Amino acid sequence: MNRPVVCIVGRPNVGKSTLFNKIVGKRIAITEDSPGVTRDRIYSEAEWLNRYFILIDTGGLEPESEEIIPMNIKRQVEMAIDTADVILFVVDGREGVTATDMEIANILRRSGKEILLVCNKVDTHKVSDKVFEFYELGIGNPIPISAEQSLGIGDLLDEVIKHFPEDKEKDLDEDIVKISVIGKPNVGKSSLINNILGEERVIVTDIPGTTRDAIDTYVTFENEKYIFIDTAGLRRKRSIYKNVERYSVVRTLTAIDRSDLCILVIDGTEGVTEQDTKIAGYAHEKGKGIIIAVNKWDIVEKETNTYWEFEKNIKSKLSFITYAPIVFISAKTGKRVNKLLELIKVVNNNYNLRISTGVLNDIINEAVILNQPPSDKGVRLKIYYGTQVAVRPPKFLIFINKKELMHFSYQRYLENQIRQYFGFEGVPIQFEFREKGD
Length: 438
What we know:
Layout: E1 5-9, H1 16-24, E2 42-48, E3 51-57, H2 68-83, E4 86-92, H3 99-111, E5 114-120, H4 129-132, E6 143-144, H5 153-162, E7 177-182, H6 189-197, E8 215-221, E9 224-230, H7 243-257, E10 261-267, H8 274-285, E11 289-295, H9 306-317, E12 326-328, H10 337-351, H11 357-370, E13 375-376, E14 379-380, E15 383-390, E16 395-400, H12 408-422, E17 430-435
Parallel strand pairs: 1-3, 1-4, 4-5, 5-6, 7-9, 7-10, 10-11, 11-12, 16-17
Antiparallel strand pairs: 2-3, 8-9, 13-14, 15-16
Helix pairs in contact: 11-12
């Protein structure tokens, strides 16, 4: 990513995520009036006056806390600061300077990066006396804004782009493949991404629900570029009792919507659960490529047929996505993670595969000869011809004499015949049937 990187930093509940959402123009980061809502680094592309950059939202920084989540947040913030070209240090203009602000200012000064002091929650054009207190931080002139009311954000962004390195503003690769890592909480989604990336990109703890937002990670593998989207685990609805967790479910579904492929991570010590089925069903309905990764395989007690029995169980419970390849991995040790990366390449190629009309009709005609179409009241289904009308996922338009005669079983038969010749491993196949003359 050859873009300038802008990182938003500050203590909890000063309005960092609200500012992030205002700048990127959409509600990506979770915002709620409670401290510690944003935990991981949230990335998004942003633009101001035709200057493009990557914006990072970070969790609220509490440098002196020794609790596990704040300590992990601190490490994430430090990593974000290290990658940033410009840092937006956000403070609360209503409260004035706090001891935590002073500690963060000391950390930022040592980074040697370009720092802009952003004084948020200044809701009128008249600057209060508390704003002038922030000069004692030694960061520079405080820039008064109200992220909530969109006051002063244009002036802030004018200052931001002045500090961009000139060699970091090339066009984004629009063809980059987006992959969401999905599954119920605590199955190892974040650990998998960390293993792929080779660094602690997202917070990993044994506390279920640590990842609340969908987080983008840029990865290059064998000269191919990918965006991996780590998502919060989907809980059963009756378990979702906090607004933040409700937002997280929306983020997960939105992450699936904007992805090309999905890696469904299943806990090898538990097997397929009801939540796994629902998540897979949503990805299937949205026409996404799917790979099933059975994680924690290193700690599963194995007997002679454990592998085959587990695979058989998956295909039985997830019978609607039998096209999805299954790989048994350990995100912790890295076992077969390379195999997973190779499968991503295969599935992505299948996701973009196009069959010529001539070849498709040869397959259909052969299928009809081998297995006559169904009939009803003396009228037999006739298939005139078909053509592929889309990729990502592959979609076929089939012209027939009567839609009512196309039974689901025969549609499945046609799909199997197409897969017999072209595989389409990991990819759903969609059909549209149209009566001749429609």
